[in-house]
Amino acid sequence: MDENASARLTAWIASQLVAAHDVRLEGFEVADFGHSAETLLFSVAWQDDDGDQREEVVLRTRPPGTGLLPPYDLGLQFKIPCGLEGTAARAPRALWFEPTGAVLGRDFYVMERIDGDVFERTVPDEIAADPARIRRMTEEIVEQVAAIHSVDLEATLLWAAPVGLPFTPGALTIDEVIDRYEELTGIRVRHGSWYRAFQMLKTAVIMLSGSMLFDSRESDDLRFAEMGLYVSYYTQRAFAEFGIDDDLESGPVAPRPERIDAVKAGQGE
User: What is the CA radius of gyration of the chain?
Assistant: First the structure.
C-alpha cells in the first residue's frame, strides 16, 4: 500500500474509533490465500483514556479487475458476520464498512483477525497425518452448518469447507456428515444425491471460470491455471451420483501451455 493510501486509511479508521488519538496502522501484510478477494492484514494501534490499545485486523476488498466469483457484494459480506454476532455460529467480529470507494478506490470492510492457520486446496502434512484431528475438524464444520441454520436471519448465509479437507483420511464420510447434521438439527436430509451433484457441478464451473480468466489474460494468477485440470474431475463426480461412470475428456478447458509458459517466464519461474 502506498503512502497516500495508507494515510487515507489511517484517517478513516481514526474516524471510526471514538475518543481515540495517535492512531497508527502497522505491519501491513498481503494475504496469499483466497481467490475471490484481496485481503490485507495489519495492526491498528491507538491511545485512549484507558491507555495504549492494539487490535489485529483483516481488511477485505474486491479485486481491482475481473475476479473469480463476481459480483462482490461487500455490504452483504459485512452484514453476515454482524448478524452472527452473539449466536452459536462462530465468525470474526465485523468492525467497519466503507461503501463509497473514496478511501482506497474500492469499497472494503474491516474485521477482527482470529488466530489460526488458513489452508485451501491441500491439507498440511502435519494435519493430514492426524486422522483424529481431521475427523474433529469435519465434525466442527457440520456443527457450524447446524448452528448457522439455527440463526434467524433475513440474509442468506453460506458456508464452505476447505476443498481438500473432505477427501483427507479421517474426515467424515458424506453419510456421516448427513447423520451428524440430522442429529444436531432434527432436520431430515432428502435428495442427497442432487445436493452432492449440485455442489460438484458448482465447483466445476468455478474451476472453469478461473481457467478461462487465466487463458484470456485477465489474470496472471497461476493458481487459476491449475483449475482447468479439475473441471472434468468434478463433473465426473457429479455424474457418478446418478450412476453415470463414463470417463470424461478434459476438453478445451485448460489454459494453453504457451500461456502458462509465458506467465512463468514473466514471473521468473
Answer: 21
pLDDT digits (tens, 9 = 90+) for 51-107: 999 999 999 998 776 667 766 788 888 888 888 888 888 889 999 999 999 999 999
65-74, 92-101, 176-185, 221-230: the lowest-pLDDT one: 65-74
For the cut 90, the answer to whether the pLDDT of residue 265 exceeds it is no
Show Cβ contacts of residue 128 under 8 Å, excluding neighbours closer than 6 positions: 134, 168, 169
Task: Annotate 126-141 with three-state secondary structure.
Answer: HHHCCHHHHHHHHHHH
Q: Which domain holds residue 172?
A: 125-185
Both 101 and 139 in one domain: the answer is no
- Tell me if 28 is assigned to some domain: yes
Which residue, 109, 90, 86, is CA-closest to 99?
Answer: 109
- Angstrom CA distances, 12 to 24, 66, 70, stand at 11, 27, 26
* Cβ proximity of 29 and 10 under 8 Å: no
Same domain membership, residue 11 and residue 106: yes
Q: What share of the chain has pLDDT > 70, as a percent? A: 88
Q: Are residues 163 and 197 in the same domain?
A: no
